[in-house]
Amino acid sequence: MNNPLGEMIRQIRIEKGFSQQQLADLIHVDRTTITNWERGRRLPDADMLSKILDTLSIDVSYLITASLNQNNSPNVIMVDDEKIILTGSIPVFKKVLPYSTVKGFTKPSEALAFARENTVSLAFVDIEMGKVSGLDLCRDLLTINPRMNIIFFTAYVEYSFDAWDTGACGFLLKPISEAAVKKQLTKLRYPLKGDDNI
Questions:
Q1: How many CB atoms neighbour CB 11 within 10 A?
Q2: Phi and psi for 190 in degrees, rounded to 5?
Q3: Would you state the pLDDT for residue 114?
Q4: Structural contact between residues 18 and 56, judged by C-beta atoms closer than 8 angstroms
Q5: CA distance 192 to 189
Q6: 161 Cβ contact partners less than 8 Å away, ≥ 6 residues apart
Q7: Which of 5, 74, 153, 197 has the most Cβ atoms closer than 10 angstroms to its Cβ?
Q8: How far apart are CA 172 and CA 124, in angstroms?
Q9: What do you get for the CA distance between the two ends of the chain, in Å?
């Protein structure tokens, strides 16, 4: 679920060093209420939002501006079971997609959980991840969001034929380069917000 207000409350709470329980105690609600707000299941009313802002020492204009900026920033995820690959590749994606929020996952289950809670515009998925196939992960991600752009990346060119049967829109060979990423971005099926900056 795309929930910019709840995500901003969560980010600010964490930045200020509050747990969900601490914030709940300070504004006299249950911890589950905070969880529901942050996950977008419910929204705080105006009075409660004012209490949250006062407690976190945040000006309402900052929250609105940050929330709007976040809403215009597409979510990009990268899934690879090797942390070293994420460490080397994520800076490339951030450089090519500076207007995006880029997150890396070593566990496919965590990537799926993130995709269920947030609108993911673009996913880079490794094909071979131990017991989990990136081909199956692609199908699961597209079930969550059929308009998600998915690009496979792998060290094995022979996987390219299997990849096209999944609904993916691109294929990269490791190691990933800026030029290769930019080339794949021209082939996306669905536009990214801010893609005029590519």
A1: 13
A2: -120, 135
A3: 94
A4: yes
A5: 10
A6: none
A7: 153
A8: 9
A9: 26
What pTM does this model have? Answer: 0.60
Task: Record the tokens describing residue 53, joined without a space.
Answer: 């802002």
Q: Using CA atoms, how far apart are residues 172 and 180, in angstroms rounded to an integer?
A: 7
**DSSP states of the chain:** ---HHHHHHHHHHHHTT--HHHHHHHHT--HHHHHHHHHTSS---HHHHHHHHHHHT--HHHHHHHHHHHHTS-EEEEE-S-HHHHHHHHHHHHHH-TTSEEEEESSHHHHHHHHHHS-EEEEEEESEETTEEHHHHHHHHHHH-TT-EEEEEES-GGGHHHHGGGT--EEEESSP-HHHHHHHHTT-SSPPTTGGG-
Query: How would you write the pLDDT of the chain (198 residues) with one tens digit per residue?
Result: 456 677 778 878 888 889 999 999 999 999 999 998 888 788 888 788 888 888 988 776 666 555 555 556 789 999 999 999 999 999 999 888 887 889 999 999 999 999 998 889 999 999 888 888 888 999 999 999 888 999 988 776 665 555 556 667 778 888 888 999 888 888 888 877 544 334
Give the pair of three-digit tokens for residue 164: 């096209």
CA angle 90, 92, 95 (to 5 degrees): 110
- The residue whose two tokens read 């900056």 is 197
Strand order across the beta sheet in which 75-79 lies: 101-105, 75-79, 120-126, 149-154, 170-173
C-alpha 2/C-alpha 27 separation (Å) is: 25
